[in-house]
Amino acid sequence: MFLKTFGTALGITVVGLILAFLYGGVVGLSVVVVLAVLEISLSFDNSVVNATVLDRMNEKWQRLFLTVGVLIAVFGMRLLFPVIIVCVTAKLSPVQAYLLAMDGGGVDTPGSYAHVLHEAHPAIAAFGGVFLLMLFLSYIFEEREITWLSWLERPLARAGKLDQLPVVVAGGALLLAANFLAPVGKPISVMVSGALGLIVFILVDGAGQMFSSGGDRNDGGLVKVAGKAAFMLFLYLEVLDATFSFDGVIGAFAISSDPVVIGIGLGIGAMYIRSMTVFLVRKGTLNEYVYLEHGAQWAIGALAVLLLASIKYEVPQLLTGTVGVGFIGVAFLSSIIRNRRKGKESPDVIVPGAESAAV
């Protein structure tokens, strides 16, 4: 199971490290390792959330997520996305943006590739922050049978009966961010980017629900969607992955200004996140440790707040990664405690003259 799931990621790691060494020597190799670890730590909660969506797809679309989806994630987000941002922000052609990237230069060097991308961070953070906030709010305002932080989740679920409450809260957060966090001259760009994040979430999430009927059932009776429904879920996963990668792509330039090194490092990390997502689905981990999804969603909420705060303040990458891993770690331990308590409270006993029953 392990080699089948992580074999591709391990193979790409070897190839990536060799390319990094040939390109940048020992220094390039070491930076790639640091960036890969950074990407994994920042996006670990992404794998848990992705697994909840991927579990609804049939095996064909799960394979596409691990193959075609990886190409989009690595080449699209880790390599092409920064170039597109620089093209739009600095009004350059793709060729000029590429040449600017190869010229190097740090974040503090005016006119450099890293500096232009850093200047676009408020708009990027607004889009990603609002998108992730909508994801968190849509989850936390929904009533569910199992709750983790019951003292908080149950009142929020009752409040969620108010129609479109997630949109109201996310819209209010965007207004506050644009008015109090946006740099001078950028409130409009923050508002527009945040509004786009809101619109994209509503469109992708709504389309996924619209096509969610129909599909194939697995042995356990769970409906595995296919066709248009699976395609919309696939798009949803790609947008979600892109949003999670924003902070990693921007933060990577604090470690290296070389886009090739950044692309290799983040690409390796993205492969492990994808493989971890598939592993969680195939092992049924989310069904066994029921609070993991809750922890991941609270981590998303925290990341959304940190992204919006980063519009004005410098948010350490260590904090971003620690918060996500912390929520998931606590949720995992809570799931273990729940399972042990449930096992003790519900032992199988043989009742004379009757079938086995759980007390």
Question: Could you give a quick summary of the protein structure above?
Answer:
By secondary structure, this protein is an all-alpha fold. 76% of the residues lie in helices and 2% in strands.
Walk me through the topology.
Blueprint: H1 2-54, H2 59-66, H3 68-90, H4 94-103, H5 113-119, H6 121-140, H7 150-159, H8 165-180, H9 187-210, E1 216-217, E2 223-224, H10 227-252, H11 259-283, H12 285-288, H13 292-309, H14 317-345, E3 348-349, E4 357-358
Antiparallel strand pairs: 1-2, 3-4
Helix pairs in contact: 1-10, 1-11, 1-13, 1-14, 3-4, 3-5, 3-10, 3-11, 6-8, 6-9, 6-10, 6-13, 8-9, 9-10, 13-14
What does this molecule look like?
The chain is mainly α and 359 residues long. It has one domain. The protein is 76% helix and 2% strand. The strands form 2 sheets. The chain has a two-stranded antiparallel ribbon with strand order 1-2. It has a two-stranded antiparallel ribbon with strand order 3-4. The radius of gyration is 22 Å and the shape is globular. The C terminus is likely disordered.
